[in-house]
TrEMBL record:
This is DUF4380 domain-containing protein. Keywords: Signal. Residues 1-26 form the signal peptide. The lineage of its organism: Bacteria, Pseudomonadati, Acidobacteriota, Vicinamibacteria, Vicinamibacterales. It comes from the Bacteria.
Length: 330
């Protein structure tokens, strides 16, 4: 019996497998498109979602959404803060900052172009070293081959000549009109749980009687209200590893890790929620570390997006709604 037909069949299988593998990777398309405002953005899309990262400012992620659909990220170019280091602008979208928050250290302007490197479905944005802080910020954005998953890597590098204590801080300005959803720790009765299960941090302006808050046994919610200009903020030690934002039937989920042995900023929290008027921000923090010259601190978020998701008023109903979506983000 000739071995040639068998070898041809094997070759066809190998070639077909390689073609399928190649097409899976090729599903992520990377190109350049206009940014909100001015300049060019690098766009990554796999046909299900698209991500835009700015090149003229930042590092910034300025869009995350379904093609042709709403942008879940907010854009606030008119906002600015005057500091001893210059005029800082939040611009919008997702940024990398230095925690604990300090004026002016955290507000070093990032209004100049960034170095952009594209490697397959990963874009790396590298800022020049901040002249006064000695910190260099690097943001990596990787889009999954399929689905809505995006991995966002945050990296702070100490380029100064002395040790600095920092925490990588990922802040996402969300598109207004929605609600931040934070998980409570699982319920246990007083008979079974005598010790506290997490820290909760409040600021001098935090008012939990404000109607923008909804506090339940399973979730802590903070909604935007353009008519209420006063600031509201809270931080939690979030061991559940997720936080979400719901707006117009779309659910944005961040996943990130909690380290039991780590020290976190702001009295030990790794998740913060903030709003003032129409402005709203969902924030996560990495471990607080002492960086030697040349060393780096890192923090990772993993993003997911779902459509046609309702937000029931009761905690039990919301839990039932979120559970199948959260199970897809692990």
């Amino acid at each position: 019996m000739s071995k040639i037909p068998a070898m041809r069949s094997l070759l066809i299988v190998v070639v077909t497998s390689l073609a399928l593998a190649s097409s899976a990777v090729a599903e992520v398309k990377v190109d350049r498109v206009p940014c909100p405002g001015d300049g060019q953005c690098v766009r990554l899309t796999n046909g299900t979602v698209e991500v835009l990262v700015a090149t003229a400012i930042g590092p910034r992620i300025v869009r995350y959404g379904f093609p042709g659909g709403d942008n879940l990220l907010g854009w606030v170019p008119e906002t600015s803060v005057k500091t001893d280091l210059g005029v800082w602008r939040p611009w919008g979208g997702h940024r990398l900052w230095i925690a604990p928050e300090h004026m002016p250290r955290s507000y070093s302007p990032d209004n100049d172009p960034v170095d952009v490197q594209v490697n397959g479905r990963t874009v790396t944005l590298t800022q020049t070293v901040e002249p006064r802080t000695g910190i260099q910020k690097i943001l990596t954005v990787t889009l999954a081959d399929t689905g809505t998953g995006v991995t966002v890597g945050h990296r702070l590098v100490n380029r100064s000549l002395w040790d600095v204590q920092v925490s990588p801080w990922g802040l996402t300005i969300m598109n207004t009109g929605g609600t931040i959803i934070l998980p409570q720790e699982p319920y246990a009765s007083h008979d079974d749980a005598l010790l506290p299960v997490r820290a909760m941090t409040m600021w001098a302006y935090t008012d939990l009687s404000d109607p923008r808050w909804q506090i339940g046994p399973k979730f802590l919610r903070l909604r935007t209200d353009a008519a209420r200009a006063g600031s509201q903020k809270v931080g939690i030690a979030n061991r559940q590893g997720w936080a979400a934002y719901h707006r117009n039937g779309q659910l944005f989920v961040k996943r990130y890790d909690w380290q039991d042995t780590a020290t976190y900023p702001d009295f030990g929290v790794n998740t913060e929620a903030y709003t003032a008027g129409a402005f709203v921000e969902l924030e996560t923090l990495g471990a607080l570390v002492l960086l030697a010259p040349g060393a780096a601190a890192t923090h990772e978020e993993r993003w997911y997006l779902f459509k046609d998701v309702q937000q029931p008023p009761t905690d039990d109903a919301l839990h039932a709604t979120l559970a199948p979506h959260l199970s897809q983000t692990r």
